[in-house]
Write a structure and sequence with these properties.
By secondary structure, the chain is α+β, with helices and mostly antiparallel strands. The chain has one domain. 10% of the residues lie in helices and 15% in strands. It has a two-stranded antiparallel ribbon with strand order 1-2. A hairpin with a 5-residue loop joins strand 1 and strand 2. The chain binds iron/sulfur cluster.
C-alpha cells in the first residue's frame, strides 16, 4: 500500500502511535486502537478511514509499514 493509499484508506490511524496492525493467518488485516483498552470512547477497531480523532498522536518514527 502506498503512502497515498494509507492516507485514503486508513487515515490518521496509519501514523498514530496507538494503532496496532494485526495480520491474520488468512491474510486479513485489522487496525486496532490501543486507546480502546483504557478509554471506552475509542472503538477497538475504528471505522476506517479515521479523518479526525481526539486521541491521535503521530508516531515520531517507524510508522506502520505499507503492506505488499
Ligand atoms: S487514537 Fe485515533 S487515530 Fe490513533 S489509533 Fe486510535 S482511533 Fe486511530
Amino acid at each position: 500500500m502506498s503512502e497515498e493509499e494509507l492516507k485514503r484508506d486508513i487515515g490518521l490511524c496509519a501514523h498514530c502511535q496507538f494503532m496496532r496492525k494485526i495480520v491474520t493467518n488468512r491474510g486479513s488485516t485489522f487496525y486496532q486502537c490501543q486507546l480502546s483498552a483504557t478509554d471506552p470512547g475509542f472503538p477497538k477497531y475504528p471505522r476506517l478511514p479515521v479523518l479526525t480523532c481526539r486521541g491521535y498522536k503521530q508516531v515520531s518514527s517507524n510508522p506502520i509499514q505499507p503492506s505488499q
